[in-house]
């Protein structure tokens, strides 16, 4: 039986950063087809210790790892985190076919190249019609451990740290990490990495992994929404919805109103807020927060076409602003955790 040749291979990942395990899968993809579409996930997130490198920087890691004659065989598709597998899968499929159509391939035969690491790899089964090529793991390479080593050294003994990664990352990636450490964001993310490590360590002695419960408030007035700039780590300086942890003796509703008042000084009666409530949605994706498993109850309020209430920052909010809804899509990479995606859920900001 003769196997039909493939027009393109698809390789999906976050590549934070590109390492030798990725390189092995990339070789398999390039052997399987003349073109390889690299789908770069978490593409428009703010820089964090988990997502330090922009999608453009990660694409450059791919290019630098290949000889010049193979670079032209790559196409890059940046995809945001939708925290909705059906939506994400459709965006990947649509984007891949659009890229291949630009290359003159209208009805492509596609092979999806990947590795089944754990339950997080189940997305590989979500593309019927594409041939799935499962590749065995080439070695114990882990991007999380790479990032921990990189930020954990804090710039001290950086050369020694990178030298210790010789069996984890290709020379081109290690060279890029060395250069990237001279940029201002390295020090910022190192400080945030330490905060998150300390935070997790403080909860490491409890009998069971903690599950945190929070609340967030999306307040709309006319064509603007109320946002804060975070004043503390994690996400210091990033946009966020007003919110925080639920108190033991409060309902989610009570906590949401309290956090809203503490962070924005929004002075509206509870009865007015009850009238303005349009929706209450739970966001519970396991990866939505770096601090650990965090489930939030998000309340959407629409104050209608009235004069904007006066606000001012309070509690741990450095600033509070009314932002036009039409500007939000362009600010996607300036939001803390999944707060842009909560806005997207309620306001439908992105066009698939």
From TrEMBL:
Top-level taxon: Bacteria
Keyword Transferase appears in the UniProt entry: yes
SUPFAM superfamilies linked to this entry: Nucleotidylyl transferase, Nudix
Domain Nudix hydrolase span(s) in chain numbering: 210-346
GO terms for MF: nucleotidyltransferase activity
Pfam families given in the database record: CTP_transf_like (PF01467), NUDIX (PF00293)
Protein name: Bifunctional nicotinamide-nucleotide adenylyltransferase/Nudix hydroxylase
Keywords: Nucleotidyltransferase, Transferase
Alphabetized NCBIfam families for the sequence: cyt_tran_rel
